[in-house]
User: Fold these one by one.
Assistant:
Number 1:
Amino acid sequence: MSRYTPATDADRREMLEVIGVDSIEDLFADIPAGLRLTAPLGLGRGLAEQEVYDELRALAARNTSTEDEVSFLGAGMYDHYVPALVDSITSRSEFLTPYTPYQPEVSQGGLQAMFEYQTAISELTGLPFSNASVYEGPSAVAAAGYVAKHAVGRRRFVVSSGVHPHSRETLRTLAQGWGMEITEAPLHGGVTELPEIDDQVSAVIVQQPNFLGAVEDLETLAESARQAGALTICACDPLPLALLRAPGECGVDIAVGEGQTLGNRLDFGGPSFGFFAVTEALIRRLPGRIAGETRDLDGRRGFVLTLQTREQHIRREKATSNICTAQALNALAGIIYLSWLGRRGIVELAELMLQRTAYARERLTALEGVRALHEQPVVREFAIAVDAPVKRVIERCRKHGVNPGYPLGRDYPELGEGLLVAITERRTREEIDRLAEVLGEAVAVERRRSYQRVGS
Amino acid sequence: MSRYTPATDADRREMLEVIGVDSIEDLFADIPAGLRLTAPLGLGRGLAEQEVYDELRALAARNTSTEDEVSFLGAGMYDHYVPALVDSITSRSEFLTPYTPYQPEVSQGGLQAMFEYQTAISELTGLPFSNASVYEGPSAVAAAGYVAKHAVGRRRFVVSSGVHPHSRETLRTLAQGWGMEITEAPLHGGVTELPEIDDQVSAVIVQQPNFLGAVEDLETLAESARQAGALTICACDPLPLALLRAPGECGVDIAVGEGQTLGNRLDFGGPSFGFFAVTEALIRRLPGRIAGETRDLDGRRGFVLTLQTREQHIRREKATSNICTAQALNALAGIIYLSWLGRRGIVELAELMLQRTAYARERLTALEGVRALHEQPVVREFAIAVDAPVKRVIERCRKHGVNPGYPLGRDYPELGEGLLVAITERRTREEIDRLAEVLGEAVAVERRRSYQRVGS
Amino acid sequence: MIAAADDELTIFERSRPGRRAFEPPPLDVSERPLDELLEPRLRRSEPPRLPEVTEPEIVRHYNRLSKRNFDLDAGFYPLGSCTMKHNPKLHERVAALPGHAKLHPLQDPSRAQGALELMWRLQSALSEIAGLPHVSLQPSAGSHGELAGVLLTRSFHEDRGQHRSKVLTPDTAHGTNPATVTMAGYEVVKVGTDERGNVDLDDLRAKADDEVACLMLTNPSTLGLFEPAIEEIAEIVHGVGATLYYDGANLNAIMGICRPGEMGFDIVHFNLHKSFTQPHGGGGPGAGPIAVSDRIEPFLPRPQVVRRESAGNGSSNPLYDLDYDRPKSIGRLRGFQGNYGVFVRSYAYIRSLGAAGLRDVSEVAVLNANYLLAKLRQVGVLEYLPAGYDRLCMHEFVLSGAPMKQELSIKTLDLAKRLLDHGVHPPTVYFPLLVDEALLVEPTETETKETLDRFAEILADILSEAREDPEIARTAPHTTPVRRLDEASAARRPVVRQPL
Amino acid sequence: MIAAADDELTIFERSRPGRRAFEPPPLDVSERPLDELLEPRLRRSEPPRLPEVTEPEIVRHYNRLSKRNFDLDAGFYPLGSCTMKHNPKLHERVAALPGHAKLHPLQDPSRAQGALELMWRLQSALSEIAGLPHVSLQPSAGSHGELAGVLLTRSFHEDRGQHRSKVLTPDTAHGTNPATVTMAGYEVVKVGTDERGNVDLDDLRAKADDEVACLMLTNPSTLGLFEPAIEEIAEIVHGVGATLYYDGANLNAIMGICRPGEMGFDIVHFNLHKSFTQPHGGGGPGAGPIAVSDRIEPFLPRPQVVRRESAGNGSSNPLYDLDYDRPKSIGRLRGFQGNYGVFVRSYAYIRSLGAAGLRDVSEVAVLNANYLLAKLRQVGVLEYLPAGYDRLCMHEFVLSGAPMKQELSIKTLDLAKRLLDHGVHPPTVYFPLLVDEALLVEPTETETKETLDRFAEILADILSEAREDPEIARTAPHTTPVRRLDEASAARRPVVRQPL
Ligand SMILES: Cc1ncc(COP(=O)(O)O)c(C=O)c1O
Ligand SMILES: Cc1ncc(COP(=O)(O)O)c(C=O)c1O
């Protein structure tokens, strides 16, 4: 008996009688006696709802959220404003609680939303076919690799060092299973150096804008891949795509990306969703669910899960992917958010970021002891280096309630004391000015400290 | 054009054309030119959604909520735990956004919930007829007075001083309109002294438990009212009613009360709801909406607003009340909360409060310089007096994150440095112990201070 | 109790002994015998018979119930006089912030500065919109604001030694107006309406005497018409020393366009749940703040939110406070400070729109109403449902179903019920009383032109259907969870609770 | 694009140029020419053609769409293998707390101690439930957990210098199992099932050789049956040096009753969206943590949440941290640390229930399934829909629609569609593949006996209706927003986006 389990003692007695056994224990007769636990699990007593609430609130209070500091953290997930209507719609039990729409007649809501979502992703990426979502950005990159491996059948990927380190690592993990090799194309001046692509390459994988915030010359990269008979996979940040040439227009074959920025919470990294769009040639290799239009018996428009013969539940070991449960609710948030932004709004939002990012970049790189890590065009994020130990500089800024960004050291030790600074519509000029002020001071203090240390 | 107003410029042009006028201004031709504003209102520019959110969050941050301190404030509204399912259900647009159910065929959800609510209130109060809600507690007391005035027709109310000061004042305000006199029955030893009730009294009005937390001898009070031909009105706190004799059983004619504790937020005092239940004799004098059972054309059970001939939209100047919009959503929260508590749970909750209140009362009154203001039985709140300026004592406690309760000075100057301390299921023993500690210390410090002042 | 199908059981009918959704936190103090804490004589013999159900059952029960409601987020809801405009979702988010939602009403003002400042700013904004200098947020709804207003009028006159006995209301007035007058101890005197739908000035002049305490007026009126002679009306009323009361239910027509204060009104109530987007909740909550002129101000309800220019503690910040020291106040109208949760939403709305946005609201509300009226004319609906008054309307308009009744044998009620089958909420019906078989249509500004066009088409379709077969409308609705309900027998033998 | 009625338009079909829901905050820096910041060559020629709509239109559109979904809060949803148990509302509340929901994934661990501690505690709880000492929360769903598990197996063998080529899966396995095996670069070898529904031990023995890297097993199996010979199976598998993988989709049957660790499993995945109440969201999100034995631990994904006994900064509090220093790790499986929002909900669930509550969950899940099976026998349903295996089941059971198809001329699909007309979601159909015309029924523990009784009655009614007139079921559903949909033509000529 618990607040979630309705069977009363009387219910249990009656039910056992109908079954024809004496006790619930009898129902577990197939379990070898030696395997049955004799002591309760070490999980303690169940708590009242308010006790659980208090505990979870206490845990939350020990996290510094974007409401608790002025945060310039990005590097793959960004502090965007999620409009209230997203929560209001996605919290409706009709969207929140159903399973994958296996019975389309009672799932038109979810299926139509998927279809709308696919349309929006297709518009953003400039590619004709989108699936209904995959897990998240980095695993989408790996999943794209899997598609390319099968489509092209060669043994190597060339991956730009400008691709998110998590994506590169995830690809490496999964490629172990496929027996693929990976070579990295280094960055030069902030963007991917045009790599050598031989006839053993299945795909060239790049990111737009890349991890250092720089806008890549996608078209040139895709063209050289095409000439070598390889596919181009591009991981893209969807909001800058409001301004940037669409991957599809640039010759990209598979565009994937992290969907968090489209109406999803930060949630310490998940759940969000990954999007996945391809050229016509690749449609039957797409992983995951796809909603498609059709008609019912009366000729009315309706939507179904389509092209299911790609999938694990039909094709089993021959499936294009093993994915089953994906991120439908997060993708729903995505299409609601994109409808909220709208055709003009998404451009305005991107331009606001562009302008503020330019402003912030100018302000910060004008500081003593701060320099740009590259001069490439950027939309919403840029990389700088500080002339002092960056982690100490960060700590110092945080004492003033400002989190200046993501230190690049772990992922790009070659870049020295790098810092990746992200701007969204949430970061006002006033906050950027404050960042400049505290960062400038922090760098100055730390430089003095190290001079003193050197001096002493 | 705004985010909420869909008419585009093109729409406007087309619409004006169909109407046959040149401009929107023309539509306002009936407004005398001299009255038309020529300058914009002094309200500034409209803000983006995120700007409004930021502003409202900044305002919220300047309030100390029950999440920000350990609060023993009560005195009419209490810090109870509202289970998550209440929000989850009441935020559904089907409950949140419709008007009063004037079209019952598409309002069965709201109407059935009202019917269920009325059943629960009837059970709690022990009276057969409940309406669907009035504004809140104190105005419910006044509304009950209006019923009694009409039912009995005499010119005076006798009101116990144990009735919430806000209720007494609201009654006084409204009684101006009815030309009624009000006399107060003082408290003695914490409970209402049996008042003299002559043949000019329409109703005796008491509160259970009274403002000082004491359980009144309702039965004796009601009996003496009945003997004098007057009605008894009782304002009750619904959760203690799980343990206390039901007003209906005690001979009360009208039971009203504040519904905030039943699943509603504190919300700095509103919106909540007032409940209102009466004996059979008074049903046609009830104010406000009432849901009643009936059948549809096919004989299926359904619910409608009933006894509407009492109401303003039918009876106009002869209506039993002018109330129109009431507190349907808050009453819905009430019935959901009561279903959540359930028959056993409401008793367990009340008993938990009873035990913790007894513990707290014992702990506090054992402190140096603290004494009980009465020795009557209490359920969830009790009154003490401190031997030091109570406001200073409170301030001192709050420095330790504890809000010890409500000072009685404004409402009961005769009680000296009184403090009303409320306990709910949210206040643990640990928190009560902490209160005892900081209160004891605060009183000690303040006593020392005043001795010193006297001494100096 | 009538038996019901499984999916329509009440929560009480779902109860099974022993089930529970609430589990109490453990008792953490040493338990004392119940008899010692509460003598048996004070205790009830049996617990209240609340339902015994688990969380999944409650959730499913009320979710299913909710699906038996029509709501504004599901379709067009042109309920006249009710201003069923979109309720922005942001408002629910900000109202739920713990700093607002979990603020105790007796929190010391020094620790509720955000709430008090919000209230003060809302007061200022409402004052600006009404064109009257003082605001009290206390009343809980429109009719509560009316009661406040008439009691203010009473105090105002009494303060000047005058004991007047009558209050004037037009015959178009909403029911709450006359009901309020009675509750405030006055006699209702009805004023007529002329053939153009305006207050009959001659009748008004005839009835305005020095027994009259007040004229309560809705402007635009409940017919959706602006009183062109409002200045003259004010002169007549003030001429006999009475106050002029503005029922603000129809404020959505004139925000930023003109102001009751300049029209000569002394007292205005707002319906924050109409013009200012508090969701209606199936019958509340709302809030009915009032704005008043200087001469009424001394009598405003207590406490009043005030701004003191310095916090006094050496800081230069203003301090927001509750002022109880109002000797002439009519006193409290309710507990605590009013429906603060509603204030949060309405304040957010005003900030979202700003001056230009608010004016645009009213412009489009009036545009939409006039467009819909013109469109109904275009598609031939007005032939059977003529406009009550043949002129431009404000934010709503009234039609008469009398010709339809005569020529097509369906009543306004039938038309309304048939609309339900089309997924549209009917307009207000049989109000105002002045118009035979009335339909009062208020589209609001948040509806699209496409929706208005579709509504016009649906009305035209229903009328042509009725021309063929009036029985369909007469027995409508046909697709709702229940069919027409027997209201008469419900009132005759009221069953208002479940027998247990 | 097929034309649709007004209430079924897509959001793109509702778009009108110039409408907007988003209003940007004002540009507060001095504007620089676009060309200067981003050369035209890098820019797109035309903005993405997203819909142009206002907030009220979006809200109404998706609200209406939502009403075209069936959901768990609306009715019984006995979808076998999916554990459609009630999703407590508390979980949504706690997951939305800003300290959880607005925590950036790259927040420094020192400022995310609450989140890391929660993850650490969830790891410990899952470890306790599985009976295996180490947990990684990283995988995003069940099949992602499977992939992690088989990659762990690969690393485990390779670390020992072994290059095995095959993975065994029973013929009852869920499709994700063989699909995963392929993705991990192994060959699938199917193991048969005996006539009682258990793994065919002889077949297993025959196929278990030293090329076998792993046996993936679901226990209880997808037939809802517990493998009585599980210990022997483990012995065979371990005997050839392979690992034993536990597909945890059916964990709801055995929580607190027995543990995969003790059964001999090396690797277990959990579906937090099944046994641990993450709402399914119409197809995710979920999470698929894995628990492993000591010998597998070195290969776990990176980073791993660890607890360091002292924060080091003089404090005696433990410090929770992300450990990247795992040289043998298979590496990352995704971005960041996993689906934290899911962890919050599942952790809350485990805390709410505690040890006794969790065991009760499984007891009642199994009781409900066996009761429903017995009830179906009692009301005669099993005559046409016999149980796949005539024995006690665990938390779900499989029926065969073959006799029904032969005798009543309706297929399992028809029965499923007809159930929709009764407001019930059908069980899983045509899975497992082993049973002809299969129906897999999983009632879960959060359903009442009344609901189970009613479901049995409905099935009986549909069968007797089919005896009279099979056409009704064959053309069902009749009351849903759309009727049966043409899936074949959708796949033939896929239209997967709106032409604009
Ligand atoms: C014209 C008019 N006046 C007054 C009221 C009463 O307002 P409330 O329901 O807020 O009490 C209404 C409500 O419908 C109304 O339409
Ligand atoms: C037995 C079994 N294994 C694995 C899975 C895959 O789990 P997921 O959908 O979380 O990837 C499922 C899901 O239905 C399942 O039933």
Number 2:
Amino acid sequence: MALSVQTLFFAAYRDLLGTSTLDVELPEGASVSDLVVTLRARGAPFDALPEEPAVAVNRSYAPMGRSLAEGDEVAFIPPVAGG
Amino acid sequence: MALSVQTLFFAAYRDLLGTSTLDVELPEGASVSDLVVTLRARGAPFDALPEEPAVAVNRSYAPMGRSLAEGDEVAFIPPVAGG
Amino acid sequence: MIHSRIVRNPIAPSEVLARVGHPEDGAVLLFLGVVRDHADGRSVTGMRYECYEEMAEEVLAEIAGEAALRLGTDRLAVVHRVGELAIGETSVAIAVSSPHRGEGYDASRFVIEEIKKRLPVWKHEHYADGASAWVEGTVPPGTGGA
Amino acid sequence: MIHSRIVRNPIAPSEVLARVGHPEDGAVLLFLGVVRDHADGRSVTGMRYECYEEMAEEVLAEIAGEAALRLGTDRLAVVHRVGELAIGETSVAIAVSSPHRGEGYDASRFVIEEIKKRLPVWKHEHYADGASAWVEGTVPPGTGGA
């Protein structure tokens, strides 16, 4: 069994990866942390992502341990600078 | 020798006394405190003025001990409520 | 340019706001004091503001100058209205602008607090039952028995 | 009515201000965040704001709701602009009104501080020398290694 999530990359992360979205397959029961490890394992430029980036799952901020489910939207959030 | 000061009364003090200004003669060397005693000694309604009212001498707040000079403008300032 | 004024005509907030701002400034703050329809549980229908005009102009300028030191810029405007005001009318407007917001909030708050402590202005409240009274105020520092 | 919105068109401060006010309210506060011409000693010529729009709308509404609890009224409007902004243009406007000023200053400040902590918005600064860079930001609470 596997699950598929949609990742989003904004601002500096999008510039780094040259893309704003990517679908990623993960084993059942994977967490945000597993997603980050999977992405960084792809090598450059993905390995330049932080080991513990801020992410939002389905538009809510989530910790690294958060479990992912089929169809989740996982956004990689560089340090924010609104106002 | 005597000195003459112009007193001003605002808001509740003016309503109390029924006048907004009064010239007062005082002995040389008199202080704000002496002025208040002199006014209160006139009896009603002057004796309803506080014993230690806030005053401004020549448009600056002054303590009770402030000495007065000929021609000073002494304003009796009820508790203020701007804004 | 620091601007401070006692006025008798209605205050236009946008005009006060237009007195501040600068390419260096990242934060602009406008405070409006407005006549409200109640006080201490009583229904209020209007307010008459009275002042010791010559002194009030001087004290307001002094407050504005002290606030500008906190603000770190001279982009500060404060206007206080006197006379007969209706509910919802602006009695005081304070505009400031500065590079950073911390100084702006601090200076804006300072102006309104100092106005309440020492500006020689008095309010006569009109109540819905036809009565009216002077609003209880604050004894200015450095005076009387204080 | 609490109002919060991410917008792409220029912000009209007077329109944001007009969303608040009530006969009960004695204090109105308008905060404007403005693009300034310098940052960390570098000359800035403009700024591009980018956001995660769907989430930013939700987070801004959440911040506005929390601020309204502090304010004690629902007279709160906050608008954040994204896109390409010139020096002096308003990036964020926050208007609040309440019976007393303390709650107004507190709620207004809360909104801007929380925006900077957790609104998913990023700024790309353009410098006078032709370079440009993402502005260093803040890691939102409850994420990553935090």
